[in-house]
Amino acid sequence: MLVRNRNNVVVTGREGGPTVVLAHGFGCDQQMWRHVAAEIGQWARLVLFDHVGSGQADPTAWDADRYASLDGYADDVLSICQDLDLQQPIFVGHSVSSSIGVLAANREPDRFSALVLVTPSPCYIDDENYRGGFTRDDIDDLLGSLESNYLGWSSSMAPLIMGNPERPELGEELTASFCRTDPAMAQVFARATFLSDNRADLAAVRVPTLILQCAQDAIAPPEVGAFVHAQIAGSRLVTLDATGHCPQLSAPEATAAAITSFVRAAYR
Amino acid sequence: MTATAGHDPHGQGPGDHRSARPSEAGFPALLEDNLEDLYENAPCGYLSTLLDGTIAKINGTLLAWLGYRREELVGRRRFSDLLTGGGRIYHETHFAPMLAMQGEIGGVSLELRTRDGSRIPVLVTSIVKAGSEGQPQLIRTAIFDAKMRRAYERELLDARKAAEREDERLRHLVGKLQRSLLPAVLQTPPGLDSAAYYRAASTDQVGGDFYDLFPLVDGRWGFFLGDVSGKGVEAAAVTALARYTLRAATVYNPDPAAALHNLNTVLWQEYREDARYCTVVFGILTSTTAVGGFTAIIASGGHPEPLLLRADGSIHYHPTKGRIVGAFPNSRYTNTTVVVNPGDTLLLYSDGLTEARPVGSETADGRYGAAALARFARSLAPAPAAAAVAAIIDLLDTFGTGLTDDTAVLAIGAPPHRY
């Protein structure tokens, strides 16, 4: 299977610019980056993709065992880089893709020139002195709802996702895939996302790293951003004046500006 | 403005109001002109939030459901604070991004957490209210009680799980029954090689193909491959009958034509009402130890002709005659002889292979066909039994959904001379 088809890889942006790989998190797909991509695509060559099990990735590539751990997703990221022969790209990962990027960067330390971790959380569950923001019960609640709520996901969501006459600029193919998730795949991805503990992997990161967090984030609270910052030597932490877990949607200009100035500094 | 659920803050106006519209005097239900009351005491929850989720306005119905006072929420809490932990994640990872991308989202199942910690299943619909320039200003959300629906969904889920368990049990039974109709381990006559393969078109129905290869008391070996009409339990009963009738026949009279005649009589007597019949190739082989190959006496009842893959790379359809077994009262069968020399392989197969409809087939009827099989066999020959069967498995894989019937293959080969 071609890696490009498997992960619905899209290459766009400025030819000859530094390469930026944009990885979406749990819940949506590469469309999540559309506003940010419009900004940083002016100076960067962008590589967008969908994780297997999300968006327009090839559903036949799904393998419940392979994608039960974040290593499976990290393997895919590295194979995309190899397949496209990307030379020292900057990896930008949102949410769980921050952890996926950290795993990939540690596996091949010379692969990436820099990491940008957008609202990262290496561990979502509270643990002694560490505050991840959630209890195990919260996560079980989510996983349970993915199972019991499949009607709400597969049927109720679909009609709305299809077509949006008021906003024709969101093409049908976009709205058809955005956030539509096969509940069985979503459950495996959710398990891998919310039950993983990658705190110990942070200290091994050796590439320049930017951490972007939101002032108000119900999923990755500021303490978590601070923890990641403290664990990755030499990392930079920027707190955006934004709300929610997805600054690329709630504050796309600020998000793009933060990435741009970090890369400028790194390439100087 | 301190409206609460169940209390109408405005009440009914003075008497002059009534006299102004005498026609409505007898129908107070038509006096639905109190918008504040319509909002506060609507049969669903209403909530307006700022773009960051902060609650700006909330109606009495929702406050009553949640058990909060207005001042505890407005300006102090966000919508996602009202959700359960799992719902909060769902809200942040799906709901909010979709709302931001599309400007609306509807019918999403979430659970509210009330002040006392209990949960209310709800359906949530939100739209982004835009200003005159199109810039987003507020999010308006309507929340419907979904207790009944959730209970119904749970019943559906339970029913689905029960159905999946039943399905699993059925597959298990079918698999077991199917295996009981095929040899557990294929035996191989001394000095020869053999291989077989069976692919059921369906996992929830017993297929109708069967084969066997077994020693007779005098050193000869019997073999057959057949295909019973239909599928399922009825076909399985016929398959079992055919298989054991053929094996039993060889005990007292090892003659293929006689065995088929016998089977024809049995099937006709048992199943003519149900139009159950089968096609089958039945043979008895004798090793020619001096030469290294074998000769086989073969009879066929309406079955696709066996293929011989020869050591020199040529192939040969072995012609057979004989009517479908069990379809007519007095069918006659004739024996023919196949000589299988060292390096040759005899291949029996069911019509699932030739009748398959592979994507991109170039035949007039879209079937794979005997001609294509001959070409394929020529590309293989010479091939030992195991290699020939492995190649056919690969071929079947390429048919994909074009493979609509069960397929059985049995290959018996004579190893090439060793000089």
Number of helices of chain A: 12
| SSE pattern of chain A | HEEHEHEHEHHHHHEHEHH
Mean pLDDT of chain A comes to 86
Compute the CA-based radius of gyration of chain A: 17 Å
**Which percent band covers the strand fraction of chain A?**
5-15%
Could you please say which CATH topology of the largest domain in chain B applies here? Phosphatase 2c, domain 1
Number of domains of chain B: 2
* Major beta-sheet overview of chain B: 5 strands, antiparallel
In the CATH hierarchy, the architecture of chain A is: 3-Layer(aba) Sandwich
Which homologous superfamily in CATH is the superfamily of chain A? Alpha/Beta hydrolase fold, catalytic domain
Going by CATH, the homologous superfamily of the largest domain in chain B would be: PPM-type phosphatase domain
Number of domains of chain A: 1
Portion in beta strands of chain B: 25-35%
Distance between the termini of chain B: 107 Å
Task: State the name of the first-level CATH class of the largest domain in chain B.
Answer: Alpha Beta
Please state the CA-atom Rg of chain B, rounded to the nearest Å. 38 Å
- State the helicity of chain A in percent bands: 40-55%
Q: Which pair of protein chains has the largest interface, and what are the residue counts?
A: A-B, 48 and 36 residues
